[in-house]
Amino acid sequence: MTMKREVVIRSVEPMEILSVDHVGPYMQIGKAFDALFGWLGKHNLLAGEMRMVGLFFDDPGVVEEQKLRSKAGVLLPGPVMTEVAASVAMSDGVSVTRIRGGEYAVLRHVGPYSDMRATYEWLYGTWLVQSGRAAADAPAFEEYLNSPKGTAPAELVTEICLPLG
């Protein structure tokens, strides 16, 4: 079964997210999300309209799995984010990370996170090569449009956002 893959070029505004660093296999970034959500809960910041974002710095085809760098993050509603960034002493490994704005190639992945590697390989190895575009020197990020806590793996929706040069 071949999946229909459609890439959309989207202009993304720069964002600041609250994040927790993760080093190790990308499939274990959930631990960093758990730590982040624990911190948000402790500070009464679990906002319904927050957006969950994962930031990925290394190519798993080049970097050893134990050394892969990523960040689990949330984008809080604008005024809340500004207030938090200004007033809350960042602790427990929580920091503010800036995601650059600009053009991104966005590909929607539907299904389990464990199937995303093939989607990435297609995006970088096929689409990017054929598009005539170049990846920017910035990390790709994923936005999780639903939560694995209340969603069957086959119904998870993730937008993979590849920064373009």
For the biggest sheet, the summary is: 8 strands, antiparallel
Q: Architecture, according to CATH?
A: Alpha-Beta Barrel
Number of helical elements: 3
CATH homology-level superfamily: Regulatory factor, effector binding domain
Secondary-structure-based class equals: alpha+beta
In whole angstroms, how far apart are the ends? 32 Å
Count up the domains: 1
Estimate the helix proportion, in percent.
10-25%
Report the sheet-strand fraction.
25-35%
- Could you say what the CATH topology is called? Multidrug-efflux Transporter 1 Regulator Bmrr, Chain A
CATH class: Alpha Beta
- Chain-averaged pLDDT: 90
Number of strands: 8
Shape: globular
The neighbouring-strand order within the major sheet is 1-6-8-7-3-4-2-5
Evaluate the radius of gyration.
Answer: 16 Å
- Low-pLDDT residue intervals, each spanning 5 or more residues: none
Along the chain, the helix and strand elements come as EEHEEHEEHEE
Report on this model:
There is one protein chain. With 165 residues, the protein is α+β, with helices and mostly antiparallel strands. It has a single domain (7-163), classed as Multidrug-efflux Transporter 1 Regulator Bmrr, Chain A. Helix content is 24%, strand content 33%. It has three helices and eight strands. The chain has helices at 30-42, 78-87, 116-131; strands at residues 7-12, 15-23, 51-56, 69-75, 94-99, 102-110, 140-144, 157-163. It has an eight-stranded antiparallel beta sheet. The longest helix has 16 residues, at 116-131. The model has no long low-confidence stretch (mean pLDDT 90).
